[in-house]
Amino acid sequence: MPKTFEKIGLQIPQVWLPRPGIDLKRWAVVACDQYTAQPDYWREVEDFVGEAPSTLHLVFPEAYLGSPDAEDRIRAIQSKMEAYLSAGLLVPYDGLVYVERSVGGRTRQGLIACLDLECYDYQPGVDSLVRSSEGTILERLPPRMRIREGALLELPHIQVLVDDPEETVIEPLAGFKPRLKPLYDFDLMQGGGHLAGWLVNDPAAESQALQALQRLASPEVFQQKYGLGRAAQPLLFAVGDGNHSLAAAKAIWEKIKPSAPADHPGRYALVEIVNLHNPALEFKPIHRILYDVREPLLEAFYAFLGSNFSYESFSGPQAWDKMMAAIDRCDQAQKGLQAFGLIMPGECGVAWVTSPSANLVVGTLQSFLDQFMQRGGAEKIDYVHGEDVLRQLSSQIGNVGFYLPVMRKSDLFKTVILEGALPRKTFSMGEAHEKRFYMECRRISDGSYQD
């Protein structure tokens, strides 16, 4: 039976990895919620992988979520999981996994573990040990639930953050590497950098990580760190990436819990724990794109925000640089003033908002976009990573892009504690190619969720 540590909502996992001889570069693919507006990326991955054993065949790239063959894809995923297990392509290992991901000259460290879904709640205003860092879009859960329900395996692209400025949990594991079992060490596809992992099979290494987490979760340390009263309940893990996948796992667990044993594997979810203060972890803004805009956008902004809204337009070859410089001049911490960029074919500019109703500029913009979309102001809204993609998509006739500045990552935990989840799609932990690649698997079922 796996070791469980209830006070920190953590279980030591059994992970399944490809057996020796399998091409790991074809095995590992980037998180399914990346490149949603770039199906060409996924077609290139398909061409590279072919029929080789790969996590590509075990996940559902969200670029294809609206495709007519969606249900066929889900059935094929679940069938492929069974085939890989039956053929002995996967080998189990018991223990935490220490990982190092190197990309762009920086190395991000992480720790693979299971989180107890009983300690997690994605509802707003909760004080659970594991909390969402941003709002959960409930209508995005059903497709993920259909994939997970009945699946034999889960593959994590979920990353949860710990607020550990003294680097007590994950970083010390690097010193134990000579005593840990190497699991994999290879270059990732599509410019994803390098990935290496070690099984934390040394009792001293495991103990130091667990004790450090227990200290971070202690009410005394938590209350002192954030200047809170005794009534405040500790927040140990804030979900950074994969919020909707974790929420889907939670929803499935709540569904099966009445008839499942307390130690059912569906009660837990495999995640990567990352230190918020790791220098390689960079917060990136998530920009917005409206497709087929049907209403005059500036008029809609003035109607929504009144005299608090103003717009400065730029054109010509230096338009983008002028827009960026204007946004940079706006101190986002300055109360009463926010700025974001608007990008349209042949033009871009800066929207200024005074006396905003939301603390973050993304909250101000999202409140407008929500009501704009509700009344059919555009055909579709999408969320994209990276300036190049934003500029490319915004240059198409009928589209409008919104450039958002990034929030300071040091504000994350206290904001979640005091104000609850941030507006959805507030930030991204790195660019798309820096996101987590699927590597480890975990068995969550024998093919049925029935007890």
How are the elements arranged and paired?
Blueprint: E1 4-5, E2 10-11, E3 14-18, H1 24-27, H2 39-49, H3 70-86, E4 90-94, E5 97-103, E6 106-116, E7 120-121, E8 130-132, H4 141-148, E9 153-154, E10 159-162, E11 181-187, E12 194-199, H5 203-217, H6 219-226, E13 237-241, H7 243-256, E14 268-275, E15 283-293, H8 297-305, E16 309-314, H9 319-329, E17 337-344, E18 347-354, H10 361-374, E19 378-385, H11 387-394, E20 400-403, H12 412-419, E21 427-429, E22 442-443
Parallel strand pairs: 7-8, 8-13, 10-14
Antiparallel strand pairs: 1-2, 2-6, 3-4, 5-6, 5-12, 6-14, 9-22, 10-13, 11-12, 15-19, 15-20, 15-21, 16-18, 17-18, 17-20
Helix pairs in contact: 4-7
Description:
The chain is 28% helix and 26% strand. The protein has 451 residues and is an alpha+beta fold. The chain has 2 domains: 4-281 and 431-443, no CATH class; 285-428, Conserved hypothetical protein from pyrococcus furiosus pfu- 392566-001, domain 2. Strands 1, 2, 5, 6, 7, 8, 10, 11, 12, 13 and 14 form an 11-stranded mixed beta sheet that branches. Strands 15, 16, 17, 18, 19, 20 and 21 form a 7-stranded antiparallel beta sheet that branches. A two-stranded antiparallel sheet has the order 3-4. A hairpin with a 2-residue loop joins strand 17 (337-344) and strand 18 (347-354). Helix 4 packs across helix 7. The radius of gyration is 22 Å and the shape is globular. The model is unreliable at 447-451 (pLDDT under 50).
